[in-house]
Design brief:
The protein is mainly alpha-helical. Helices cover about 80% and strands about 0% of the residues. The two termini are about 35 Å apart. The mean pLDDT is about 90.
Amino acid sequence: MFVSRGFWVSVLGWAGVAVKGLALGFLIFLFFVFMSGLDFVVHRVLYSYGLRFSYDWAVFYWDVYGCVFLIFGAVVGFVYWLGSDRKWKAVKISTCLFLSVYLLFLGGLADVVWFVLWGDGLPSGDVLWWWMPWFRIFGFWNSFAQLCLLSAVFAVVGLFWIWILGS
C-alpha cells in the first residue's frame, strides 16, 4: 500500500515536536537539579565551614533564589516565543512554559530534588519543613504534605498542557 508523502511529513513533524518538547523538559529539569545543588552548597556545605543560620541573610537568599526561577521561566517562555511563528498559539505555549516553571518552583520541586539527589532522602513525616512558605500559612508542613502539593502541581501543569496543546 502506498502512503503519501504528506502523511510521513505530518508524523515526523509531530515526532520532531515531541522530541523538542522532551528535550526542553529535560533541560528545565536539569535547571532544577543544578539550582537544588546550589542550594545544597548554601544549606549543607557552607554550614560545615561555620555558616550560621540567620533570617537576616536567609530571607534575602530565598527571595533571590525564587526570583531566579521567575526570571528563568520568563526567559524560557520568551525564547520559545522568539523562535516561533509568533501567532496566538505561540503566546499561549510561551505563557504555559513560564507558568510551568514557576508552578513547579512554588510546588517545591527544587526542595524535593534537593533531598532526593543531594540530601539523604526525604525526611520522615515527623520532621517539619519550617522553611517552606506553606508552614507559615498552615502551621505545619512535612514530606507528605510536600509530596501531595507537588503531585497536585504536576497534575495541574499536565492538565494545563493538555488544554493548551488541544486548543
